[in-house]
């Protein structure tokens, strides 16, 4: 064990003891843990897009359901009134299918990818070179 | 026709001469051709004086001299598609070319705690500031014109070159700013942040509403809710009609009542977003709202825009070798070659981070790959 490691362990121990007693110190802004992270395809993501997963034995009478093209899951809309409001002149059942398909594609369609020809981030590489140095 | 007859006459006379025909025969043939010419030309045989075989000039005989209308002029060029990015980036001014540092407190302080009778309150803590740095760099392009080219320009072809140079500076800046959010690093960061920062859906009312809900769940660095709302939707040019359709819809799905459409946003077309229909990317931004700085565009103090510069001629006009001189016209160019040199120069920069991309604060951005139907 190096001296530096020992010092670090002692410092951590003291900090924990003080924290237990209510003494906290100013810390860096949180950078690692992201509390509002929602994983793609997760239950939180499903709630975000407004879908309800239909389980075996669920009573779905009166609801429009749609099977996922990506899995064996079946979904219904959390709020079917939205369909009527968006497509007032369209058969609600047909409009519900349209909305369900949109939401399921987002939920189970994987993570977003950058476009194939997305540029790289610009960085000032070699901008301090003269034309002679660049061989131009 | 008369020229043809004249040619036939000459040919026949040459043939007869080769056959050693007598002079009388040659004269007879010449007279016959002359008679034929006059008959066909309407010249009276009885008064054949002062008539000679001549040619009438027609326009067809003058391909260049009178058939080419010599007028040269330049036509106006194209109007460039403009990208109005100003609401999306925070302007900042830096004093020089060194990195500047900005600190932002992205947190409140601790919640209060219940204190019992004769109890003593516990000490609270204050979060450290978030540190971000950016700097500016030089952006330039140089143009050389020969003295002869400028002097020969009698149609004003080069007159708008200076304006075009200024336009190129603006265009370059627009591409630079667009790349803040279209570069792979920024996109990868937004995707890594999860479903509150990115999606796959094509631009629809439902997806804009989902993005708005995502913004409504934005928190500060201490996970406390903050005010953040979707203000701008920025997209590929191919989504202009879709955005108009969404904005002009009278009703909206996500409301439980038949209220008018509240899916309002300001559409900004970014002509530099790449994509292939129907998979067209789009972004939702907050703009400069509630202290959120999604992106920054730094300019140098005293350099708010591009400069168009011309190298002053190093010549002077003199009447004697040792006498005083006077400046010459800029079109004279430099002493050695007569070149006239112009340069357009600007200074700008932004925040660059290997993880965050160009985002100063990721709370102000939302990306969609536009791939999911």
Task: Fill in the keyword field for this structure.
heterodimer, A: 136 residues, mainly alpha, three-stranded antiparallel sheet, 5 helices, B: 373 residues, alpha+beta, five-stranded mixed sheet, 7 helices
Description:
The complex is a heterodimer of chains A (136) and B (373). Chain A is mainly α. Chain A contains five helices and three strands. Chain A has helices at residues 3-20, 43-49, 81-86, 92-108, 131-134, and strands at residues 51-53, 65-67, 74-77. Chain B has 373 residues and is of the alpha+beta class. Chain B is built from seven helices and 14 strands. In chain B, strands 1, 4, 9, 10 and 13 form a five-stranded mixed sheet that branches. In chain B, strands 5-14-8-6-7 form a five-stranded mixed sheet. In chain B, a hairpin with a 6-residue loop joins strand 11 and strand 12. In chain B, helix 1 (2-18) packs antiparallel against helix 2 (23-41). Residues 253-259 of chain B have low confidence and may be disordered. At the A-B interface, helix 2, helix 3 and helix 4 of A face helix 4, helix 5, strand 5, helix 6 and strand 14 of B.
Question: Gyration radius of chain B, to the nearest Å?
Answer: 40 Å
Contiguous uncertain segments of 5+ residues of chain B: 253-259
Range of helix content of chain A: 25-40%
Subunit arrangement of the protein:
heterodimer
Distance from N terminus to C terminus of chain B (CA atoms, Å) equals 77 Å
Intertermini distance of chain A: 55 Å
Shape of chain A: flat
Which pair of chains forms the biggest interface, and how many residues does each contribute?
A-B, 52 and 67 residues
Q: What is the number of helical segments of chain B per DSSP (H or I, 4+ residues)?
A: 7
Structural class of chain B: alpha+beta
Widest sheet of chain A: strand order? 1-3-2
Low-confidence stretches of chain A: 26-31
Helices and strands of chain B, in order, run as HHEEEEHHHEHEHEEEEEEEE
- Shape of chain B from CA axes? elongated
Largest pleated sheet of chain A = 3 strands, antiparallel
Structural class of chain A: mainly alpha
Strand content of chain A: 5-15%
Mean pLDDT of chain A: 78
Q: Quick one: biggest sheet of chain B?
A: 5 strands, mixed
